[in-house]
Design goal:
The complex is a heterodimer of chains A (about 325) and B (about 250). Chain A has about 325 residues and is mostly helical. In chain A, about 80% of the residues lie in helices and about 0% in strands. Helix content of chain B is about 35%, strand content about 25%. Chain B is globular. Chain B has a six-stranded mixed beta sheet, sandwiched between helices. Chain B has a four-stranded antiparallel beta sheet with strand order 2-1-4-5, with helices on one face. By secondary structure, chain B is of the alpha/beta class. The chains are: A mainly alpha (about 325), B alpha/beta (about 250).
Chain lengths: ~325, ~250
């Protein structure tokens, strides 16, 4: 797309100089986003040498992945899936069942996790016909249906039902950690691509107005379904990595509504429609959660509640918008 | 503003010389529940020509445009574009065929800059037209890097027009482009519309309440009332018809 624009600028003499500035600025924002992704990967790649609690690092990464998935779904297409954790659980169980029942290796297991969540997303894609809170509630119901399906005694032969999954056959703390870092890298790169590609523009066009987007030649149903599938694949990948790391879990652990709510709050707090927002949101809020949430949970809920009110009232577009306006004023 | 060689090609492919039937709306009826929005309406339009659609509020003008652009399905009847039956096709496919429109209340893609608004339509609409040229034609080049929600109402209308034009339509439906514009803006937009129509040989289907605006764009009109065609012919003749006058002035 950037290249296209340059040829366009080249065709019309006399308009070039101003456009080049715009071009440069846009490039700079792309460079900035790519740098954010690289720094993020670097931090987590060497994370274990300065933080002994591996599970904390993994949780951070998994929440970043989920928050980016929410970002794709809500930030780019305007659909807020409260049942987003369903894809996370589907990915976790795809990993667990394929490795423990079908005895595939860990890496094919990760792929299976993503495939299962993508299949679930395709089955649920008619939900995209619903709008706003109707969609949010329907996706929540779908996630609830999914956990009942998995923990059902009749499914015990495959999923081990309510007794949970065990991935001890592929347990590997080192490889599972590295895979999570790679997964976070892939997910962040995908969001960078979305933000700077014509496809991302098309998604934002649909979000703004469906009819105008359709009249612009955008196949609305196909484009939004594709975004939905990308978002689900992110959650599935996160779930599969998480399952591999923790290796033993129960249906309630990977289908917990709290996971959805956290991911949504992290994404909204940081700022949707941006690359850096969900990352910052996760670091700040999950940091607060770990600092106060575990020791004094009652204060944690109070502070979280206040934070949500403050975000909605004063920073509806998240921390990233705050940062952008401060940056904008400085560079003026 | 218009490069010389382009306007001469427009004359060469002038409307009158190549009058080929572009759009044929054949006995279309549309029901909204029990309300008959369009009742057996037929409208024909030749390539490169312009046709006005007039009538009081609720007479079915916008519904007719919605049927032509695929946003509303007809209960009966057909829409032929280039002699091909296109009834029931999705809007984006019609956009690719060369049918486009502006909206009564333009809804620019918020969060995108003016240029990105046009870019996304140019790319997905497969128009292969220069974004810069479209922006210059619609006089939006100076606000190209601004966010589209910062535009004035008149600029938003031009942006909607620019978005439609960047898909390289052969038929452009214009829904009340003049509403809410000042006198000078009306002049500018009417000229713009005629200019692009002549330049690219675009046929226009113009819904308009403002006769002053309409007469600057076309002489031919179809008058709708309560979902039916009550007059077809020139605008001047229409205003002499007792039944047309009655519909507009309430008799």
């Amino acid at each position: 797309m950037l290249r296209d624009d340059e040829t366009l600028v080249g065709e019309i003499p006399g308009t070039a100089s101003k456009d080049r500035v715009t071009q440069l600025f846009r490039n700079r924002s792309f460079v900035g986003d790519a740098a954010v992704a690289l720094v993020l990967i670097g931090v987590f790649a060497f994370g274990r040498s300065f933080e002994a609690n591996t599970l904390l690092l993994v949780n951070l990464m998994v929440y970043m992945i989920l928050a980016q998935g929410i970002n794709v779904s809500y930030g780019f297409t305007g659909y807020l899936p409260f049942g987003f954790v369903g894809f996370f659980g589907a990915g976790a169980y795809g990993m667990a069942v394929s490795t423990s029942k079908f005895h595939v290796g860990a890496y094919p297991g990760l792929v299976a996790g993503v495939v299962v969540s993508v299949v679930v997303a395709l089955i649920l894609s008619p939900l995209l016909r619903l709008r706003g809170s109707y969609f949010a509630i329907a996706s929540l119901a779908a996630a609830e249906a999914l956990v009942l399906l998995v923990s059902n005694p009749s499914a015990q032969g495959i999923t081990n039902g309510a007794y949970g999954a065990n991935l001890s056959s592929v347990f590997n703390p080192g490889a599972s950690y590295v895979s999570t870092v790679v997964a976070l890298g892939l997910v962040t790169a995908a969001v960078v691509w979305l933000k700077h590609s014509p496809f991302g523009l098309a998604l934002r066009a649909i979000k703004a107005d469906r009819s105008s987007a359709a009249m612009s030649g955008i196949n609305v149903v196909r484009v939004r379904t594709f975004a939905w599938v990308i978002s689900a694949a992110m959650a599935g990948l996160g779930g599969a990595c998480y399952a591999w790391v923790i290796s033993v879990f129960y249906p309630g652990d990977v289908f917990s509504l709290t996971t959805s709510v956290f991911a949504i709050i992290f994404a909204l707090f940081g700022g949707i429609g941006t690359v850096v927002g969900p990352i910052v949101g996760t670091v700040v809020l999950y940091g607060i959660y770990n600092a106060i949430g575990i020791t004094v949970p009652q204060y944690f809920q109070l502070i979280y509640g206040l934070l949500i009110v403050v975000i909605v009232l004063f920073v509806p577009r998240g921390l990233a918008s705050l940062g952008a306006s401060v940056f904008g004023r400085m560079s003026r | 503003m218009i490069p010389q060689e382009q306007s001469s090609t427009a004359v060469a492919a002038g409307p009158a010389s190549t009058a080929v039937r572009l759009l044929e709306v054949r006995s279309v009826s549309v029901m909204f529940g029990t309300f008959m929005a369009l009742d057996d309406v037929s409208v024909n339009l030749d390539g490169g020509r312009a046709l006005g659609l007039v009538g009081p509020n609720g007479s079915g003008k916008t519904t007719l445009i919605n049927v032509v652009t695929g946003l509303v399905a007809a209960k009966r009847g057909k829409v032929l574009f280039d002699r091909e039956d296109v009834s029931g096709r999705a809007p984006h496919r019609l956009a690719h065929l060369g049918i486009n429109r502006t909206f009564q209340i333009p809804k620019p893609f918020t969060g995108l800059t003016v240029r990105q608004n046009v870019e996304v339509a140019a790319r997905y609409g497969k128009g292969r037209r220069s974004v810069e040229e479209i922006l210059a034609l619609t006089r939006l080049d100076r606000v190209g890097s601004r966010s589209s929600e910062e535009l004035t109402a008149a600029e938003q209308k031009k942006l909607d027009l620019a978005r439609a034009l960047s898909t390289a339509p052969r038929l452009l439906c214009v829904d009340e482009l003049g509403a809410g514009l000042s006198v000078s803006e009306l002049d500018e937009v009417a000229l713009m519309l005629r200019d692009v129509s002549e330049r690219w040989g675009i046929a226009l289907l113009v819904v308009e309440h403002l006769m002053g605006f309409l007469e600057r764009v076309t002489e031919d009109v179809v008058v709708l009332n309560a979902g039916q065609v009550i007059f077809e012919g020139s605008l001047v003749d229409a205003l002499r018809q007792p039944n047309v006058i009655q519909v507009f002035l309430g008799g």
